[in-house]
């Protein structure tokens, strides 16, 4: 649920402007050193108490932004969808230990992380259901819209700070798509409309496309791709129907 953008933004704030409670100020060091400190706390404390199989082995600043030009590009964490998803609770824990509780923007970041974690928990609880139960569907909708409202408010706040401020809280098309998913939760399980559901399919189509372009122009390569995909799909469906 737009988690790669949210995670990248939160790490950027932790590395640039926040302080760890009862510890040295984060922003006294370089962004790279600050990120290393935050990640060390997550691995050493959070993951020790909350083991996770789908987790990053390490996170570097280059996975979030361009270290040489971090004030000109919006942050976004690179990685597998499952890894990014399972990082949200750990990052929420780290943020709560670093945030200033009287800062409105910090509380909005906390709300966004909390809502994102809640959305993922609901989807995991009902991964085999065609629709969400009415109560969970309503909570899912409220959390999704609260997440977008927090992101939009933060985007407006940081965009007004001027050209010297960090580029943060980029509102992407997936944010708009999330609203539609939330509104349809009572009629269709949101897992059926997740933006990253087709990533494995994209890898397979890339391999298939590579075999179609050899010796063909663009038009013939597209036709060959469709034919090959149709043959493969018919074989797959035929095998599945034969086992019914």
How would you describe this structure to a colleague?
The chain is mostly helical and 244 residues long. The chain folds into two domains: 3-193, no CATH class; 199-242. Helices cover 60% and strands 0% of the residues. The radius of gyration is 21 Å and the shape is globular. Mean pLDDT is 79; it is low at 19-27.
List the helices and strands and how they pair.
Elements: H1 3-16, H2 31-49, H3 81-98, H4 104-125, H5 134-159, H6 173-183, H7 199-210, H8 218-242
Helix pairs in contact: 1-2, 1-3, 1-4, 2-3, 3-4, 4-5, 5-6
Strand content: under 5%
How far apart the termini lie comes to 35 Å
Structure classification: mainly alpha
Total of DSSP H or I helical runs spanning 4+ residues: 8
Envelope shape:
globular
Let me know the number of strands.
0
Number of domains: 2
Radius of gyration: 21 Å
- Mean pLDDT, to the nearest integer, reads 79
Name the helix and strand elements from N-terminus to C-terminus, one letter apiece.
HHHHHHHH
Q: Mind summarizing the main beta sheet?
A: none
- Spans of at least 5 consecutive residues whose pLDDT stays below 50 are 19-27
Give the assembly state of these chains: single chain
- Helical residue percent band: 55-70%
Task: Based on the model shown, name its key terms.
2 domains, 244 residues, 0% strand, single chain, mainly alpha
Task: Describe the structure concisely.
With 244 residues, this protein is an all-alpha fold. The protein has helices at residues 3-16, 31-49, 81-98, 104-125, 134-159, 173-183, 199-210, 218-242. It folds into two domains: 3-193, no CATH class; 199-242.
